[in-house]
Specification:
The structure holds 3 protein chains of 3 kinds. By secondary structure, chain A is an alpha+beta fold. Chain A contains 16 helices and 8 strands. Chain A has a single domain, classed as Cytochrome-c3 Hydrogenase, chain B, CATH 1.10.645.10.
Chain lengths: 373, 158, 340
């Protein structure tokens, strides 16, 4: 039947499109079900579960030393910080005081991890908005950090260097020199990031005012890390609930109030500068001492509930342990930053274009194994 | 007026960006960061702490340091180490003693966490820096670490 | 020999030979450009690029082409088979047509019609029909979005290409390519027309990059947004046609820029005017430099969003272009051209 009303004849329809699980912009196996009207996004529904490995359940089987290496596989870009979270929760439960040396080394490695994660993110962010060269430049700088990790920890990505009670072994003799070389090198390269991408007029247009997240929404969605700080919500765990060497350290929490994609971008770039400064202040002052305190071969946590949160490159990672006094936890829950950050995606993107979705989901810095666990 | 200054600033930033990539293009020979892997096979040296695979060093008398205490087997999160052991009569002392028959290591299941090596009380197993693990047959990844006919070094277990 | 060519069959034979020559050039140039792009991209990115197959990896694209030839031609089940198969030929034949009028040197030009420039702009915009057909008929939403973007993009930027060339035609007074080059014996048009010519060149480069769907205007393919855009569902040789056509289009746009702005096959300051065949060398050399510029764009800039693409055209390029034509007219009226 032919209707005569002109609105009916030229009526447009919304349609669905599956972005992922195999898609270049979702960095893994994230599936986004988009409802689109032309180019304009009406709704985004993330569909998870493609890389669920039941890490939390595996933790209930493993001993506390073994749990640490599973956290490498969650957010693999901040593996070291994840390890630290589990170690801290065990040490707190046992009321174990680790030496100062361990704290400082852990903090240096954590900040190196943060730089490496943010550098990778910068490269991928550039690639998502279409500047393919950024990726290789970011990897060039990341490679130096990976070399530091490889020399000291023995692995490049899944280090498993922290153990409950300290470090697996002492730092490599070359460690201090290598870190200093890296810092000197990286300080000359970071301004290049700005000239190549940040200042670029196309990039500015692509990100400014795109994917707005208000401070209220940032809090109510439970976002953390650079995503929340880009919206002006001060939530740095290192500042508010300091752990390891952060207790005695002086550093600025990077905050932006604009709440758009560019603000989140700037927070991460600025955090790299902050991390560089932190490492510089620590690297000359690594105290002498033991690299671990002896623990029993079989660690048994006392009965009770323990919680520890740390600031990973993506935000707040919480580890919640319920112990019944056994060698394995009764229940272990990870509060992963990626999951909460992803939940804000719909709020940020509705009304935007497909091109915006790529830029916005890129500034969320999603690591899918972290979301799914 | 901001219309024209926008154009000017925009073009300026574009040229600055091209300057960065251009700089690397004209220094391309010096700045190459990729490795020509199969060509540099001989010169490529891994760091001495690199976790390649677990090996059990043997000395010249075909003796290793493994007493079969199974600490590594217990420490391994993935069950990639299996030790088949037996109590045998030591011909010298005449006492019954735990001896390993086979120290089986499943490389395909190993996550390179290093807990087994930390757990070993006698330093019987160490990391090797071998990274060329690819094989055509999966069964080749299951390795027996102690060499045939080897026995434990004297004085280790005490 | 001349007798043979004057006859009817001779004409056909001549045409076939020339066509064969152009086809060979098309294939070789396409393959070489693909290799060049990968190599140059690698140097921008601190890599080495393809360097295993043949000297400097020159045979790499031939190996890739062989692989593509041997691949299965797949497609979606509910695709419009006729249009789906037709689309790649649209794209590749239009690219080949445009090649015919390019003056490689004073003698080597297959088809010197008096509306040469007009013919070039007309033919190079037919290719978009192939992209639209391909995106529409392959029954894939990503492909459809890509094709629609391409339609929007080409319709808009065709204006800028045409207008910036028109600015230069004011100076030459002819559309015939050989005539245009003849005029430049007194200095290349970018020198003759100084300020408006430089503006026209910049606009032409921007619009030309958009016409060929290359980054930063590669919304049609937009790897991180649409996977592969309009050719998502194409495989094997059909995909290769799209791929080759993209590179040939880049060559054509650069060649137009060289003819209109940089004196075509003329040597700088007339240093090799006594040896006419060296014109080929100069023409290809200049074209390569412009191609290099386009590659430099591609490996530096982020991609625009689709609405920004249109903003750029309608709010910036078009008004500037119209103003530029007036400026050029004024300059010609006041005899302000620079001639040697």
């Amino acid at each position: 039947m032919i209707t005569t009303k002109i609105e009916d004849r030229f009526k447009t329809e919304e349609y669905f499109i599956n972005m992922g699980p195999q898609h270049p912009a979702t960095h893994g196996v994230l599936r986004l079900i988009l409802t689109i009207d032309g180019e304009i996004i009406k709704n985004v529904e993330p569909d998870l579960g493609y890389i669920h490995r039941s890490i939390e359940k595996m933790c209930e089987r493993d001993s506390y030393q073994q749990i640490v290496h599973l956290t490498d596989r969650m957010d693999y870009l901040s593996a070291h910080i994840n390890n630290e979270a589990v170690c801290l929760v065990v040490e707190n439960a046992l009321e174990l005081e680790v030496p100062e040396r361990v704290k400082v080394i852990r903090t240096i490695l954590a900040e190196l991890t943060r730089i490496s994660s943010h550098a990778l993110w910068w490269g991928v962010m550039g690639m998502d908005v279409g500047a393919l060269t950024t990726f290789m430049y970011a990897f060039r700088d990341r490679e130096l950090i990976n070399d530091i990790f490889e020399e000291t920890c023995g692995a490049r990505l899944t280090m498993n260097y922290n153990i409950p009670g300290g470090l697996m072994f002492d730092i490599h003799p070359n460690f201090v020199k290598r870190v200093k070389d890296f810092i000197a090198e990286f300080k000359t390269k970071l301004p290049e990031y700005d000239t190549l991408l940040t200042n670029n007029v196309i990039f500015q247009k692509r990100t400014k005012g795109v994917g707005f997240l208000s401070r209220e929404d940032a809090i109510s969605f439970g976002t953390s890390g650079p995503v929340a700080r880009g919206s002006g919500y001060s939530c740095d765990v290192r500042k508010h609930h300091p752990y390891s060497a952060y207790t005695k350290m002086d550093f600025k929490e990077v905050l932006r109030t604009a709440g758009d994609t560019l603000a989140r971008y700037e927070v991460r770039i600025q955090e790299m500068w902050e991390s560089v400064a932190m490492i510089e202040s620590l690297i000359d002052n690594i105290p002498e001492g033991d690299y671990k305190v002896a623990t029993k071969a079989v660690i048994k946590l006392p009965k009770g509930e323990f919680y520890q949160k740390v600031e990973t490159a993506r935000g707040e990672l919480g580890v919640f342990v319920i112990s019944k006094g056994d060698k394995s936890p009764y229940r272990l829950k990870f509060r992963s930053p990626g999951f909460s950050n992803l939940s804000a995606l719909n709020k940020m993107i509705v009304g935007g274009k497909i091109g915006d979705l790529v830029a916005v989901s890129s500034t969320l810095d999603l690591v899918v194994p972290d979301i799914d666990r | 007026m901001s219309y024209f200054s926008d154009i000017y600033k925009g073009i300026k930033t574009l040229f600055q960006g091209m300057g960065v990539t251009g700089k690397y293009f004209f220094h391309a020979r010096k700045e190459i960061i990729t490795q020509q892997y199969p060509d540099n096979k001989d010169t490529l040296k891994m760091f001495d702490r690199f976790r390649g695979e677990v090996v059990m060093p043997h000395d010249e008398n075909n003796e290793h340091r493994c007493t079969g205490c199974q600490s590594c087997e217990l420490a391994c999160p993935n069950g990639s180490i299996e030790i088949i052991w037996d109590r045998q009569v030591d011909p010298e002392t005449g006492k019954k003693k735990k001896m390993i028959d086979k120290h089986i290591y499943h490389l395909s299941m190993c996550t390179m966490c290093g807990l087994c090596i930390e757990a070993c009380p006698t330093n019987a197993i160490v990391w090797s820096q071998e990274f060329k693990h690819a094989t055509f047959n999966r069964s080749e990844l299951t390795k027996i670490l102690n060499k045939p006919g080897s026995k434990v070094k004297k004085g280790i277990e005490d | 020999m001349t007798d043979l060519f004057t006859t009817y069959t001779g004409n056909i034979l001549q045409m076939l030979l020339i066509a064969l020559g152009y086809l060979t050039f098309f294939a070789v140039a396409g393959l070489l450009l693909v290799w060049l792009e990968r190599r140059i991209a690698a140097f921008f990115q601190l890599r080495l690029g393809p360097n295993r197959v043949g000297p400097f990896g020159l045979m790499q694209t031939i190996a890739d082409a062989l692989k593509l030839v041997s691949k299965e031609l797949t497609g979606t089940e509910r695709a419009d088979k006729f249009l789906y198969n037709l689309a790649p030929y649209f794209v590749i034949i239009t690219a080949l047509l445009a090649l015919a009028v390019l003056p490689f040197s004073g003698q080597i030009q297959a088809f010197d019609i008096n509306i040469g420039l007009f013919f070039l702009t007309a033919v190079s915009s037919v290719g978009v029909i192939g992209i639209l057909l391909g995106g529409w008929s392959s029954n894939n939403k990503y492909a459809l979005i890509g094709a629609m973007r391409s339609g929007v993009q080409t319709v808009s930027y065709e204006l800028s290409v045409g207008l910036s060339l028109l600015t230069m035609v004011l100076l030459t007074g002819s559309l015939q390519l050989s005539q245009i080059i003849e005029v430049q014996k007194d200095g290349w048009l970018i020198v003759q027309g100084h300020i408006p010519a430089i503006i026209a060149f910049m606009i032409f480069m921007i619009a030309g990059t958009a016409e060929t769907n290359r980054a930063p205007f590669d919304l049609v393919e937009a790897e991180s947004e649409l996977g592969a855009g309009f050719h998502t569902e194409y495989s094997g040789m059909k995909f290769a046609y799209f791929f080759l056509a993209e590179f040939i289009n880049m060559f054509i746009i650069s060649a137009i820029a060289v003819v209109v702005f940089f004196g075509g096959w003329l040597s700088p300051f007339g240093i090799t005017d006594s040896i006419p065949w060296l014109g080929v060398f100069w023409f290809l050399g200049k074209t390569f430099l412009v191609i290099f510029l386009m590659m430099w764009f591609r490996w530096t800039f982020p991609r625009l969003r689709v609405d920004q693409l249109l903003t750029l055209e309608w709010k910036y390029l078009l008004p500037i272009n119209l103003f530029n034509i007036v400026l050029m007219a004024v300059i010609i009226w006041l005899n302000l051209e620079i001639k040697f």
